[in-house]
Amino acid sequence: MKRYTIFVITENFIGILNRITIIFTRRGINIDALTASESRVDGIHRITIEVTTSEDMVIQLVNQIEKVIDVIKAFYHEDEGVVYQEIALYKIPVTRLDGGLEKVIRQHNAKIIAAEPQFVVLELTGHKEQTQELLEILKGYGLLEFARSGRVAVAKRMVTIDDFIK
Amino acid sequence: MKESMIRGADIVVQSLIAEQAEIIFGYPGGAIMPVYDALYDYHEQIKHVLTRHEQGAIHAAQGYARVSGKVGVCLATSGPGATNLITGLADAQIDSTPLVCITGQVAAHLLGTDAFQETDVVGISMPGTKWNIQVRRVEDIAPAIAKGFYIARSGRPGPVLIDITKNAQVDFGEMNYAPCLGFRSYKVHKPVEQSSIQEAAELINQAERPYVLFGQGVVLGKAETELKFFLDKTGIPAASTLLGSGALSQDHPCYVGKLGMHGNYAPNLLTNQCDVLIAVGMRFDDRVTGDLKRYAKQAKIIHLELDPAEINKNVKVNIPVIGDCKESLSMLTEAVEKKTHSEWLAKFRELEELEKEAVMQHDISPTKIGLTMGEVINQINQYKADDAVLVTDVGQHQMIAWRYFNYKKPRTQVTSGGLGTMGFALPAALGAQLHDYSRQVICVVGDGGIQMTIQELGTIMQTKAPVKIVLLNNNYLGMVRQWQQMFFDRRYSFTELNNPDFIKIAEAYGIKAQKVKAREELTEAIEDMLIYDGPYFLEVVVEKEDNVFPMIATGCSVEEVRLS
Ligand SMILES: Cc1ncc(C[n+]2csc(CCOP(=O)(O)OP(=O)(O)O)c2C)c(N)n1
Ligand SMILES: [Mg+2]
């Protein structure tokens, strides 16, 4: 079992995400995180999927994904093959703002991105291990809400979408 | 509005005609009525067959597609009409049958509101189609149909569903049909790599006990001749999967039999003795491989396959040859040395004798009083045409008919392989027959399965399709009963059937019918049936508790194939 990032380059058509997630459901594979966005090329979307599984399985998943008619290309990398980031938001009650918290914010390079009469929102960008660490600490500060994005990633390999659509 | 504009419904029908569809199997209803209205004007250019159930329509389209190699076309209304197609879609998906199914849908402004007969058929059918789409605007109809036909028939074929909202059917638009010739996200297949051919050829040339397994891919790739030439040159023993049957004449000297749970003894057993296994257009289904951990471990494996996702899916292969097997087989034939493998072939023949004694003897010339399914098929062999199509349902009769039918020509095998859909045979036989009225179509069906789609006798009556229906009546859900006998201590839990008078039913549909109970009557009855000009229903009462052997029980290895 290992963590893999699957990249899917696809036409931007209705239902495409559904078609892709069905492939994971059928094999009983849990998706750790998924993000979808536009790509550099008009009309083409990219989906990034994080899974923890065996290499055999990830190869089969990628093969099945690539069979989906509107998918242009699918491939996978191990963590070493990708540059990735995640963003996490933490909502803390103002009543708990004190010197201790200020130190935590500084140490972790977190940012305060919103301050309301009742709460503040901190933001931290980084790998899961980092955002997780801050999460554990902030639980001691009356953390009200926590949200973390899926991984956004780019491959280290020097290929571009243009290579797939020519 | 310009004068050249026509209704969306007319665009639907004209698009089908542009794709050279000859026949539509369908059933009308509210959301598809504009298309039915349009069909009224085109009955000279395209035929429509009204089945008695949408499941019948789609299985008929499958039967048509299987024997013709063309795309089967199916039409249904929204809601229940559309959901009745699902079994057929799943069946066509797993057996790679090209279909284009068009369903009506509620008007676009009602979508998502739980309108009358609204169902999310695009969502429901997503895992069971090669591709599907909802069309909500008249201008999108023709491109969707063009793309649908292209996807259905190209690459590894499969079913496509196009859901068209009612407003798109009644709105007016331009008809300028452009067939689809490809698009960027869908690469049909790459040319075969010469290097993989070289590697494969070297392995084959060195092999002492090479063995070919061929599947439906040969039929779908129209590579029957290429397979024959390859075997002519190499002299390699070759066995067929269920859906591969017919791809090679059983008279060919290299033909050694059938693979799988109820296939022949030698082909299963010797899978674990070959040194090079050459799989052509087959996907190592679990019914073929048995326990994967003990499957052909001694062999180097070459896999000729169109669909890259099939490579290493079930069995790890040494040399994948990806691409159209029509291409790869002829390249391979070029590259290999001419050889014979008579000793190795003789081994198959030797073991075949064992099977003859232990199984076939009983099946074909039984000593029991009751008739066996095997002798019925054997008698059919005596009188059938070489290119007769055998359509079977699912169960014991399917396995026995497959085992004993003498396949000589391509596209003579129509059965539900991957899904094992009871109720498939009767409508599929109808569809196969409607492709060509002059071809012999023999539908072998069980007393259980026929009752799942028996209403299609009505369609047979109306179309006068001269299907020869052979009901092998054992008064049981026989295959399940066999498992209960073998693996559940003879606890026959809900498998015995209290059957109706099938002859009366057939006759009520105006179909000539006959019932045979005794051996003396069998030959004549079969002869009568096969020469009869028109649909015919022959019920044969067979031994109630006969079993199908050989058998590889679930979880067992191919070498544990049992003769009793
Ligand atoms: C739609 C469907 N339901 C259930 C099954 C499970 N099943 C497989 S074979 C069989 C018995 C078939 O009985 P019959 O049609 O009489 O054929 P026989 O085996 O007796 O020849 C059943 C119930 C199936 N394959 N398809
Ligand atoms: Mg039965």
TrEMBL record, chain A:
One of its GO terms (biological process) is L-valine biosynthetic process. Pfam families: ACT_AHAS_ss, ALS_ss_C. The keyword Amino-acid biosynthesis applies. This is Acetolactate synthase small subunit. Dimer of large and small chains. Its EC number is 2.2.1.6. InterPro entries: Acetalactate_synth_ssu (IPR004789), Acetolactate_synth/TF_NikR_C (IPR027271), Acetolactate_synth_ssu_C (IPR019455), ACT-like_dom_sf (IPR045865), ACT_dom (IPR002912), AHAS_ACT (IPR039557), AHAS_small-like_ACT (IPR054480). Residues 5-79 form the ACT domain. Keywords: Amino-acid biosynthesis, Branched-chain amino acid biosynthesis, Transferase. It is an enzyme of class 2 (transferase). It comes from Algoriphagus kandeliae. One of its GO terms (molecular function) is acetolactate synthase regulator activity. The keyword Nucleotide-binding does not apply. Belongs to the acetolactate synthase small subunit family. Catalyzes the conversion of 2 pyruvate molecules into acetolactate in the first common step of the biosynthetic pathway of the branched-amino acids such as leucine, isoleucine, and valine. It catalyses: 2 pyruvate + H(+) = (2S)-2-acetolactate + CO2. PANTHER family: ACETOLACTATE SYNTHASE SMALL SUBUNIT, ACETOLACTATE SYNTHASE SMALL SUBUNIT 1, CHLOROPLASTIC. Pathway: Amino-acid biosynthesis; L-isoleucine biosynthesis; L-isoleucine from 2-oxobutanoate: step 1/4; Amino-acid biosynthesis; L-valine biosynthesis; L-valine from pyruvate: step 1/4. One of its GO terms (cellular component) is cytosol.
